[in-house]
Amino acid sequence: MRRRWNLSLWLGALLVPAAVVAYLLLLVPYPAVRDRPWILLPIFAVALALMGRGVARAWRAPQLWRGRLFGSMVTLLATALAGFLTFGILVAARDLPASAGAPKVGERAPDFTLPDQDGKPVSLASLLAAGAGGDPAAPGNGALLIFYRGYW
Fold it and tell me: Residue 105 and residue 122: Cα distance in Å, rounded?
């Protein structure tokens, strides 16, 4: 009897690196999906189910199906890759150290100058000093600063 290729094993083994490459190319540039890559978990689950089916098939009937030893090793490596990526995204990325130089809540921000929507430079001091409509005699405005912590 001629042995057959165990396609579910190899498709599952190819699905894990394909999901990792897709994550790196398609999801990493966009913070909204990079930090919550829930689409990877079902892909990894399908890949692990396919590989589990293939390994079980190869061990149950080795005279019929290929991939008993090599398939087991590939399954172990693909499972480790999926586990490390999942751990890195969902656990390790959340454990970033606190920034020592960042201003605290309620602390006065240092003065800075940035371009506005028209490209003109606007400083924080000028926003706080100028009142309504840019009139220096009017009472000063406040400024709301929002800081997004990223992976820069």
Answer: 23
